[in-house]
Design goal:
- Two copies of one chain form a homodimer.
- With 793 residues, chain A is α/β, with parallel strands linked by helices.
- The first copy, chain A, has three domains: 356 residues, Rossmann fold; 205 residues, Rossmann fold (3-Layer(aba) Sandwich), CATH 3.40.50; 178 residues, Rossmann fold (3-Layer(aba) Sandwich), CATH 3.40.50.920.
- Chain A is 36% helix and 13% strand.
- The first copy, chain A, contains 25 helices and 22 strands.
- The first copy, chain A, has a six-stranded parallel β-sheet with strand order 12-9-13-14-16-15, with helices on both faces.
- In chain A, helix 17 links the parallel strand 15 and strand 16.
- The first copy, chain A, is elongated and about 100 Å long.
- Chains A, B: It is an enzyme of class 4 (lyase).
- Chains A, B: This is Probable phosphoketolase.
- Chains A, B: One of its GO terms (molecular function) is aldehyde-lyase activity.
- Chains A, B: Its cofactor is thiamine diphosphate.
């Protein structure tokens, strides 16, 4: 349904509708309790027996009845207006609700045919929940209709906003838990409404579910005056509707009307948006205040449970050994009057079945939630059109990310009809020198503007807010619903989303193992303003450890690239944008810097991912004295400068230069699919020669990747050692002993050759370091001969 | 000054005061521009020459004049009411402002005597800024009066709240940048006001500085209607005062009155708090709307600069080569009329000097900002009082963290007069089983309460909110101002604060190198609900990689402990609470589990940090066939179970069991101060025997730590391999091949012995794994013989 064409009305809200919805809700609640407790007797056709009860009872009841309530109401409104709606479950553990509801609507059985809509299927549905070999207790990838996992809290709203970008008629109803609402990521996510274009994007309908409690504490937003909460939501730019109570029939009625009101608002905003009204709309949201563990036991062992944090997990803890508990459980289960809801075969009765939407309108079958179904390959231009010309090795290029920016501009241009690519950054797209994208697009922004602003517009392919959480969350939501994108950030501060990366990598791992889940576009992260070039930001901005973090995740999911120059970056970037179902991390420089490979050379090099640079080496077969390896733009620069010195000063030292673009090449084949075989590794690094490895990040990562290799004991790695401050670019390498002068000393120390010219060169290197130190402390800039290095390659 | 005793008045606000403050502000602004641009001619006694200008100009002008403005006004109010106030600079790069102001008030020269308050000192002050060998461009540890580093954005408010806890008469004035305000951490930090006790804690006075722009974008909060912004702040529970404009004299007057209004509110709240009024107060805050780069050049190269993002860094980019730029710079510098502000010697004129507070009232000298000055050792009880009795190895204990909770309860009790210890957790103190603390304290909470609540009170030593960012930020603020604390979290979600940990570790590293900075209490992090015991949460809650992240930081700062049982945890916890200036990470179990060491044994073991468990081993000197090493509670359990099997089934295999408590023992002495010498390492692990290492976290971390050791090639490490779901506790180890049955197979595969009993045992292990799988898929609980294991040690 085109949202602007809806004709809202409330004619269907009457006591019969309410009664039916109430029945449907009871069915969902019953299925929820059943999943947590039962392994047999799923329809309670006979008295509950202890052997019907699971030996281990794991799950989360507290949030579940509220989510069942919401789902039931959304079904009504979807069906009535033929809405295209997805359900995002923010509270951590709503598993029983979403599993139960997708089962009631039929989605579950379509995806898992063994879970039939009858007594036998019900029994399986119950048993598999939170059970070894079964399904998790939260809204996991296994759950139909889910594209947001309720594992770590805080990202539901951001994911919802990512989902509706470029989907103008999609509504993402996002249930925000009042616990989750306390997280930082969620607290800033409310502001996402300033980035949505009401004409070209869809609608996020947040439902803040105030059930009042977290694991063992009240929720903050449930414990401030209502007027404060309303102001907060209005201050965030929303129009809140409040639905509150614990009398089901009354709350059903209020909720139905609140949703109708929201539909009225949405229709009006959408209708206006097609005119020239570009004013930022105030979107509706709902505050739903119902008891935690609603309809569950009110007291257990004389302690309040319903409307208390004690209903968070499994309220009745010991129904097998404790007779009171056992009786309470049976009473609770029977309170839903299951025999009125399901027929004798265990199938939901017809009058309730017809409440659910049909086919892809069912939230469990909405294709946006299995984004690979909708994914179209990105059209990608030839990288040759953006190649940096390299007349001789060491020519200065325009800045590697600058070339990437030109490429991305073209990507945006040729995919502009599909509207399926976006660039995300925390106010760092310009700082990371991807400027050229703004020649073809703008930053999407729907807050106020001034005529001195640059590149802001209600619609644009770039999304910028100073929140790494939101950039990452929006992008994840965009990818999970079948589109493409790139996140660019400063290298150090990408750690802000370490945990979000974890969750996404886990989602990719699990969905890869589910046949019905289709592959998504990769999560692509381009890091610049990296550790070696924090000239004006200093120590706080220096941390190259994100890649250490990344490679702890499954090898089948993660990829790490360190392109040494612009042409390599272009090739790698294209490769990442083409890839599916990975997390690709690229680290690249942004400053004008030496370029090493023509596009043709770069193509060969990147294809291999690692290789000998013969033009820089002077060894022949079997004559190698030593290998100088490098990974990353600055380490490559310093390595080649060191080689320059050595080849000029002592030609007899035979050096092999190896550059690593694809970091995972270093691992064994059986640890990472990209890994080199041992023989290939030996062919590159030799079995017994010293290897001086200049590395972009923390040095021990190279040891971790290569410890099984034959020649590993000869590896000497230089990298970032947590030494740095505001200083010159070259001095950063000196502080961490990764610079050319230290590298030459390393070579002289590690090869088994000596002589007067060796001693002379060692002394010269020491002198250069002193000269460097004195010069920068006097002038504040690098030695001219370092800045304008004479290459001898 | 006792805040409730203040008698507010505005009698001093007149045109003379305003004019003087305006002069002081100009002086601070001049010093700021001087720091960014000048290396000579600091008083402009002669015409500006190109050689006076730094060759490299790095720094951030945009935020600076606003912060100078605020600092000037705070000086007035501090002096007038004798306030104890600290200044927290939220915007990233206010360095020139804070350095300049602490110089003007004299603090800077007291700490750095070579930076004198005369022309010579001024020249040094200017040159050192953002210069190799000098000081960073942001409010770094080198800056007097700073305890919050403006590196990564988002933590200023959280740090401020941490600072005022238990400091009832301290005011932390927190300048929140409008860029920073977009971050998740900051967005939720506003809610901290619900946790402050107006009687026993101090005051956070936020000043939201809307200068309108970030690096290259407008700031969101500057682009919403003012009424929305006011509602937002009121919704967060604050009373906002708005000061806006660009006419300095008018804004000075408005700001002076706004601060007086804030003082009136603070005095009233404080006065009421001493009575029985426990209602949560609405604290004042100020929204200051002034142009970014205020008083700087309005246009450069015909582009707007003042009140635009172009003033973010160095507004005039090329004053040495571009004649227009050069002239604009001189005009800008002279616009402050430096000769009216400083005397001929370069000393601030008397009439301005007297505007600054004196001695420790100066914000640059406030002892809270150099917390070690105020730090008192924590009183710690004997751990023996909390020892778990171990009659025989393998006795089941009450849960390791439960014992830690009993110990922490006592810590709280005996330090209750000093009020210098707090426990922080994201709603996980109970879930991590530290229950007993609530027998002596409560969770501090000043939002609404109900009579069914538990352990909530206006004052308490525990702080809980579902935001790892706030827990960490509050604790950091508490530590940085000279107190002690502990953060307890789920292991997986501690990654949420990876980047905060980075920044704090960097702060510790740099302050350690500054002689005037005193040592702080360590940042102690106790992780439980760890990767191996996520029975009901599953895969999303499994990530043991925080320790990989931690050990990338300086070895002199970081410590990692994996106590295998309750007595070891108690000893380690005490050790960490006694220590200074580290980040200590402890990972411990919470479930009832086997206990290995009596308190006496544990004491010996923890003192060494690593050791042979002779009671579990059956090797003699030189007879060792194989080493079984373990680190972490679950790996220790599985290792000892495997040893039990082996010692029962094939006595001839001589096994040495090593347990590692202090992970950094594995590294070399020259890499970590705790590291074992190579000979000590060899004495433990042998030089040539197979080592089967069962490890709590990702296995390759052990390789990373030991790759230089003699016997490293014989290390076979089992750990978490990103395999897991909802399943039984034992099955988690099976999925990752860390369980006893796989470990026994490992042993049989790696020792060079064979025979029929070996083949028999291999088959038996395989059978056990099949039996296990069948049993859990039928019953959903672990095999009885695994749960009630018969130890044979």
């Amino acid at each position: 349904m085109i949202l602007s064409n809806i004709t809202p009305n409330t004619s269907d809200i009457n006591s019969q509708t309410i009664q039916l919805m109430h029945g449907y809700w009871r069915a969902a609640n019953y299925l929820s309790v059943g999943q947590i407790y039962l392994r047999n007797n799923p329809l309670l056709k006979r008295p509950l027996a202890k052997k019907d009860i699971k030996l281990m009872r794991l799950g989360h009841w507290g949030t579940t009845p509220g989510q069942n309530f919401i789902y039931t109401h959304l079904n009504r409104i979807i069906k009535k207006y033929e809405l295209d709606m997805v359900y995002v479950s923010g509270p951590g553990h709503g598993g029983p609700a979403l599993v139960g509801n997708t089962y009631l609507e039929g989605s579950y059985s379509e995806i898992y045919p063994e879970i039939t809509q009858d007594e036998k299927g019900l029994k399986k549905l119950f048993k598999q929940f939170s059970f070894p070999g079964g399904i998790p207790s939260h809204v996991s990838p296994e759950c139909p209709g889910s594209f947001h996992e309720g594992g770590e809290l805080g990202y539901s709203l951001a994911h919802s906003f990512g989902a509706v970008l470029d989907n103008p008629n999609l509504i993402a109803t996002c249930v925000v838990g009042d616990g989750e609402a306390e997280t930082g990521a969620l607290a800033t996510s409310w502001h996402s409404n300033k980035f949505i274009n009401p004409e070209t994007d869809g609608v996020v309908l947040p439902i803040l579910h105030l059930n009042g409690y977290k694991i063992a504490n009240p929720a903050l937003l449930a414990r401030i005056p209502q007027e404060e909460l309303i102001k907060l939501m209005e201050g965030y730019g929303w129009k809140p509707y409040i639905v509150a109570g614990d009398e089901p029939l009354k709350v059903h009625e209020d909720m139905a009307f609140a949703l109708e009101n929201a539909i009225v608002d949405i229709q009006e905003i959408k209708a206006k948006a097609t005119q020239t009204d570009s004013k930022r709309p105030v979107w509706p949201m709902i505050i739903l205040k119902t008891p935690k563990g609603w309809t569950g036991p009110k007291y257990i062992d004389d302690k309040p449970v319903e409307n208390h944090f004690r209903s968070h997990q499994v309220p009745i803890s010991d129904p097998i050994n404790n007779e009171d508990h056992f009786q309470q459980l049976e009473k609770w289960l029977r309170s839903y009057q299951v025999d009125q809801l399901f027929d004798d075969e265990g199938t939901l009765k017809k009058e309730y079945q017809q409440l659910a939407p049909k086919a892809c309108n069912r939230m469990g079958m909405n294709p946006h939630t299995n984004g690979g179904l909708l994914l179209k390959d990105l059209k990608l231009p030839s990288v040759k059109d953006f190649a940096v010309k390299v007349n001789s090795h060491g020519d200065i290029g325009p800045g590697d990310t600058r070339s990437a920016g030109a490429f991305l501009k073209e990507v945006m241009k040729i995919n502009s009809d599909e509207k399926n690519f976006r660039l995300f950054g925390p106010d760092e797209i310009l700082s990371n020198r991807l400027n050229e994208v703004f020649e073809t697009t703008n930053r999407q922004w729907n807050a106020q503007t001034k005529n001195t602003d640059e590149f802001l517009a209600p619609e644009g392919r770039a999304m910028e807010i100073l929140s790494e959480h939101l950039c990452e969350g929006w992008l994840e939501g965009y990818l999970l619903t079948g589109r493409h994108g790139l996140f660019t950030s400063y290298e150090a501060f990408i750690h802000i989303i370490d945990s979000m990366f974890n969750q996404h990598a886990k989602w990719l791992k699990v969905t890869k193992e589910l046949p019905w889940r289709r592959r998504l576009a990769s999560l692509n992260i381009l890091l610049s303003s990296h550790v070696w070039r924090q000239d004006h930001n200093g120590f706080t901005h220096q941390d190259p450890g994100f890649i250490d973090h990344v490679i702890n995740k499954k090898a089948s999911i993660i990829r790490v690239y360190l392109p040494p120059d612009a042409n390599c970056l272009l090739l790698i970037l294209k490769h990442c944008l083409e890839s599916k179902h990975y997390v690709n991390v690229m680290v690249a420089g942004k400053h004008p810097s030496p370029q090493w490979l023509s596009m043709d050379q770069a193509e060969l090099h990147c294809k291999k991912g690692i290789g000998i640079w013969e033009w820089a080496s002077n060894d022949q077969q079997d004559s190698t004295d030593l290998v100088m390896a490098c990974a990353g733009d600055i380490p490559t620069l310093e390595t080649l400068a060191a080689v320059s010195i050595l080849r000029k000063e002592i030609q007899e030292i035979k050096i092999r230069v190896i550059n690593v673009v694809d970091l995972m090449k270093l691992q064994s084949t059986n640890e990472h699919p990209h890994g080199l075989s041992d023989s290939d590794f030996d062919a590159l690094f030799t079995k017994d020669k010293p290897v001086i490895f200049a590395f972009h990040a923390y040095p021990w990562l190279i040891h971790r990747l290569t410890y099984k290799r034959n020649n590993h004991l000869n590896f000497h790695v230089r990298g970032y050692q947590e030494e740095g401050t505001i200083t010159t670019p070259f001095d950063m390498t000196v502080l961490n002993k990764l610079d050319r002068f230290h590298l030459v000393q390393d070579v002289l120390n590690f090869i088994p050759k000596s002589g007067s010219q060796y001693d002379y060169l060692k002394e010269k290197m020491k002198d250069m370091l002193i000269k460097h130190r004195n010069y920068i402390e006097e002038h504040g800039i690098d030695l001219p001969e370092v800045k304008e290095w004479k290459w001898n390659l």
